[in-house]
Amino acid sequence: MQQNQQSLSGLSQSPRSPQSEPFLSVSVIDPVKLGNGVQAYISYRVITKTNLPDYQGPEKIVIRRYSDFVWLRDRLFEMYKGIFIPPLPEKSAVEKFRFSAEFIEMRRQALDIFVNRVASHHELRQSDDLRLFLQADEETMERARAQEMVIFKKKPADLMQIFKDMQAKVSDVVLGKEKPVEESTPEYEKMKHYIFELEDHLSEAQKHAFRLVKRHRELGQSLSDFGKAVKLLGACEEDALGKAFSELGGRSEALSTKLQIEAHHLLMNFEEPLKDYVRAVQSIKATIAERANAFRQHCELAETVKLKEINLDKLMLTRSERVGEAEIEYRELKAESEEATKRFETITRLMNDEMARFQEQKTLDMGLAFHEFAKGQAHLANDIADAWRSLIPKLEACSSS
Amino acid sequence: MMGSENQAFEHGAHTSEEMSYLLVDDPLTSKSYASYRSAMSTLSESCHHPLSRSIATTEDRDPLLSPPQDSNQVSPSSPDNHDSHYGNSDYYSDLIISPLEESNYATANGMDTPKLKWQNSSSLSRLESSNSSILEYLKITVSNPQKEHESSNSIVPGSNTYVTYLISTKTNMWGFGGSEFSVRRRFKDVVTLADRLAESYRGFFIPPRPDKSVVESQVMHKQEFVEHRRVALEKYLRRLAAHPVIKKSNELRVFLQVPGKLPLSPSADVASRVLDGAVKLPKQLLGDSRSVLAPHEVVQPAKEGRDLLRLFKELKQSVTNDWGSSRPPLVEEDKEFLDKKEMLHDFEQHLSHASKQAEVLVKEQQDIGNTMGELGLAFIKLTKFENENAVSGTHSVRAADMKNVATAAIKASRIYRELNAKSVKTLDTLHDHLGSMLAVHNAFSDRSGALLTVQTLLSEISSLQSKIGKLETASSNVFGGDKSRSHKLKELKEIVRVTEDAKNVAIREYEQIKDNNRSELDRLERQKRTDLLNMLKGFVNAQVSCAEKLGCLWVKLAEDTGRYATKSS
């Protein structure tokens, strides 16, 4: 990390090119269906444009699939505890088989947003894993991905941790300390409560937004059917009235198309951002879990250190031969404990910053989504008004005839 | 208001003169002003809210609407502030829904005041074209259902309860001696009325009466059913009053005015008819009593008649006609009629289809309105939540944005609801016309029934005449005359004479029915045209008005959130 920072600042000092500002921009495009049957998957082209020294050339194109993105997200989650990792679109095992154009487009958009968020985060963009993801050839990528697919995607170290956790829990129960150790500061409580409840509220809004999209489609369909029926009815009538009927039918059908368009627009620009918000909140929940883990480790180690200290003192008093051993153990444990405490504090600090940034960002994201929503609906309403309004003079003409 | 405004408002100033009646007569309307807020409820609840809104806006809009009766009940300004700025777009909008009718597919079609030539709801114009005199009106209201007990000649006491409805009439037609009166009637009386009208007005397009629906009365909650029926009865009676010929009928007058049991016409009771017929049959078969049709009986359709023998004969005739072995003596030759019949058949098909699609459309509009509302509510909750947990300025900004979206969504859902109420009303014309088609079918079967009677009589005459011919040849061979045969001949000739009379009456009846059909077809054609045109206008105007309001709403939200727009958008 230090190195990168140096090189970045170095860049800004040397006026080699007009674009001396370091930039890293990524696009995810061109979804292509590969494989067949159950093994079918979508591959995407990931284009990286950058002037960062660690990256190859001004532009690099690689082919990636969804699982590669998942790998990246998991790696970032591991390495950057405390930072809110941008969310990925859902796995969706069912829809995958249907691979509708809309689904593919939605996924592509979400993946594009994901990578760009990573690339624009001042910490995350420096990740080696990101660089691998953006630059490595397909075989290297596959290898890296395979390594992760170990039991439950957990490294040996993590397995040990799990084991230790279980031990700790057992001893807690035995000792009568059944409640898991948790932070209880009012700020933490408030934040946790906020995030958890926020998810519920946002999910509800998103659910209704999704339904609204469906309603638009259904209304469009019924307008189309109605239009056809009215046209047929008009065919029974002669002269102006018959014409009026068929024009009405025609308008109705035309509006049906506009409704389908708006439904799509609503999906991509209003419902998806809401969905994205929900995912982001879920990602934060995962970070909170990490924080809780870190806190617990810090607490437990602190406890253990204290016990060890007492033990050590006892040993020193009795001048036992085991003093030396015990001292070494104690020092090691103390170092571990301090590490754990530092980790926890880092996470807490990072989270505070992240939270502030997250709130700001979401206000902007939502504001844009609302704007798009309003714009789309306004256009639709105006189109509808215009279409029907154009019929009025014709109808008036009928009645006078 | 009464009769002074004759101009047709060509635009969509869709107001209803009914408003004043309803305000004066109907105890329900006072509720409609009670709370405008409560008006923003679901469509399935009473239709008071569109009425209150519409009244308010029409008050703003229409100087010709005389305020006196209404003013103390109408709120001086539009109850909804937000609409004041939609101002002129309302000009095209508000159709009134009668608060008396609450189901989705009830309409205010019963409005039968032809004197006001407002071009608004379909039924009005229907009346306008059918009523020459603008001073004749006949307004019928059905209300106040009450349970009553059958005076018991039944063995089990208290077993027979039924519901009566108060039928109140206001009229200035002469022939009714009086301008306001009311009478209590039960459903059975209505059935009687319908039957009598069907007999007296063969060939006319008589509006079909409400169903007996025995099953429904078990299934529906009693109160609901009674209300449903009350609405249906009112609609039916108003349609009768709207028919230019039937409104002047004796049957209707008696029904509306003369209390007490309705006198049954000779052929009213099917059971007794059939019974009488069964009694007559043996005598007829044995040739005892005159097995001829009395001329007056010929005027009644055989099916409903008591004459079983006649039924058999006509059935035989129709079978003969169908087999086509011999050309029936008289055929339906009126090509114009046949063409019209076919066209009407097509029309009915398409009408039915369009009516179904209209139903679906209305449902979808309702759904989208509901979802909009739910979305709005979800955002309200979010707003509240964010405000409660605001730790930084950005929270409040976001909360404010969400509130704007929520408000817009909720307003939008109200607008959709309003649109729906109007759509239901206008598109109901389609349903109504389907009902008229039924009346047309009945009238056409009157015609074919009468034709069949004529055909039967003609073939009977010809068979009688061939019998006479045979007898004459036979008796001419006997020298000195054949007493029994000549007696028989005299009888037969007498029968032929009576049958000829009956045949002439039948032909006259048939021609009359044909005329009735013709005039009714013309009337229907005109009415259909006007109704459908008004339906289209109403539908289109409602859509325009709603879309304009929505447009304003969303444009404002777009402006409020304009600062978030990216350069690309």
From TrEMBL, chain A:
Residues 22-141 form the PX domain. SMART domains: PX. Residues 323-350 form a coiled coil. Transmembrane segments: none annotated. The keyword Coiled coil applies. The keyword Coiled coil applies. This is PX domain-containing protein. The lineage of its organism: Eukaryota, Viridiplantae, Streptophyta, Embryophyta, Tracheophyta.
From TrEMBL, chain B:
SUPFAM superfamilies: PX domain. Residues 68-79 have a biased composition (Polar residues). One of its GO terms (cellular component) is membrane. One of its GO terms (molecular function) is phosphatidylinositol binding. Residues 47-88 are annotated as: Disordered. Residues 143-262 form the PX domain. InterPro entries: AH/BAR_dom_sf, PX_dom, PX_dom_sf, SNX2A/B, Vps5_C. It comes from Nepenthes gracilis. Pfam families: PX, Vps5. This is PX domain-containing protein.
